[in-house]
Amino acid sequence: TKGFLCKVFAKPDIYCGKPKGKEKIMWISFFLWLSSALMPFAVFYLVAFGILARRPVFSDFLEGAREGMKITAELLPTLIGLMASVSVLRASGFLDFLSELLAAPAGLLKIPAQVVPVAILRLVSNSAAVSLMLDIFREQGPDSAAGMTASLLLGCTETVFYCLSIYFGRVGIRKTRFTLPGALLATAAGIGASIWLGGRLGA
After folding, report:
1. How far is the C-alpha of 135 from the C-alpha of 137, rounded, in Å?
2. What distances in angstroms separate CA 20 from CA 151, 158, 167, one per listed residue?
3. Which among 150, 129, 147, 151 has a CA at the least distance from the CA of 138?
4. Contact present, 5 and 15 (Cβ < 8 Å)
5. Contact criterion met (CB below 8 Å) for 115 and 149
6. How distant, in Å, are the alpha carbons of 22, 72, 128, 131, 149 from that of 85?
7. What tens digit of pLDDT does each residue of 112-146 get?
8. pLDDT for 3-26, tens place per residue?
């Protein structure tokens, strides 16, 4: 199996000469190939399943696309408001001010100060949080403590306020009961775990 994977998914002259040093890269190449193959496989599977079930596949696709466009139009004001608020926060310098303000408490807790605005923006906008994470990568490197913590943080947290406004707003629910406290508690646990792991894994 190892030789087969080495020949198919990696370059034998580079990756197969030193198994201990290059085996990790070989498996990463395999999983990258697998992830890129899953999407076309899923599409062909759905089409084949629809044909075998004698469903009008293209008509169902058009109906779903129409419903999706309608939902997008209904959610557009909420999306515009969220994106505008995030842009204002970044352009006003508030995030930089907040990072400087929380630098001392974050240092006491061994939290990289650069991760603080990432954690805040993650609650509202994933794209803005990813942008800040890429800034950390450029300045300190992805293998640094801050880069590792930011990567883990984006993987184990969620855009809480974005999801609440989109999903509950779509169905017209205003009383979210325990959803927000539960989501914030889970986010806090994810942030804590990412800080602990990032500090141990970061260079």
Report:
1. 5
2. 26, 36, 47
3. 147
4. no
5. yes
6. 45, 19, 11, 16, 25
7. 888 888 888 888 888 888 888 888 888 888 888 88
8. 544 544 444 444 454 444 566 677
Instruction: List the alpha helices (DSSP H) in 93-178.
Output: 94-101, 103-108, 115-122, 126-140, 145-156, 160-163, 169-171
Other CB atoms within 10 A of residue 175 CB: 6
Would you call 197 exposed, middle or buried from its count of C-beta atoms within 10 A (0-12, 13-18, 19+)?
A: middle
The answer to whether the beta carbons of residues 117 and 98 sit under 8 Å apart is: yes
What span, in angstroms and rounded, lies between the C-alpha atoms of 171 and 12? Answer: 54
Tokens of 21: 């040093």
